[in-house]
Amino acid sequence: MRKINIEFNEKEVNSFIEKLKKDPFLEGFDITSWNANDFALYAEEHKNCAGCKGLAACKNTNQGYALEYVNSSFVLAPCKYKMEAKRQENESQKIKTLFVPKSILQADLQAFDATTEHRKKIYEYIVKFIQKMKNKTFTKGLYIHGGFATGKTFILGCIANELARNDIESLIIYFPDLVVELKNAIGTSRLEELINYLKSVDVLLLDDLGSENMTPWLRDEVLGPVLNYRLMEEKPVFISSNLNPGEELEEQLATSKSKSDSLKAQRIVSRLNGLVQTIELDNRSYKR
Known about the structure:
By secondary structure, this protein is α/β, with parallel strands linked by helices. The chain folds into 2 domains: 10-78, no CATH class; 89-280, Rossmann fold (3-Layer(aba) Sandwich), CATH 3.40.50.300. 48% of the residues lie in helices and 14% in strands. Helix 8 (216-232) packs parallel to helix 10 (259-275) and helix 9 crosses helix 10 (259-275).
């Protein structure tokens, strides 16, 4: 291969270096002909960063990154906007959702309304629950029941997002739609996958339990085994429902008036009592 000789005009190089040394962004650096181009790019990118309003406005070659000079070497480092985007991405990956509106992923505990006695109890319970989960100490979830449009789904969203901020995985599901998915999956490997995930996820959040068309199969082959597994393995559950966890839920779970079905429904409620604390919401209407 033919060698190519490139000659530099020493005067122009020195002039370029002197100009760089006067740049406030390069004060104190040892700039030579070997690193002048890198320092020029360093200064340009840091000037871009100084006036940047976010990732969408980034002018640097590598969006969200800028050259840094560390231990006599140039490295690409993420800016604050890139790091925040990565943090949010990591959090969102900790929350798995099925059949719930995307807006629920914006639910924030900081926006939680704790102005009534019931809601204050819920807020305080969530804070304590998160702390115990961080310490890997099992504690019961909540069974939140109340009327329509009282903010139950929003509360579950707050819990899921707060768990994600603390690196704890959760699954939040709109239960009636899950039932349809389970029935459609009968006879396929999808059914086993769904049930195993309901059992194994760190924290399970079931939204609107009791609004589904309950069947003996759903009760005995899905809900019962999932709750029993999570009780044995000390994996918390949060549930929202329009039904109280006593007679109303038992009646929904029984599916018939037979003594056998009644006992099976009572068994489900008994397992729930080992997994959740019950709090009733006031009937203040919320539209999110």
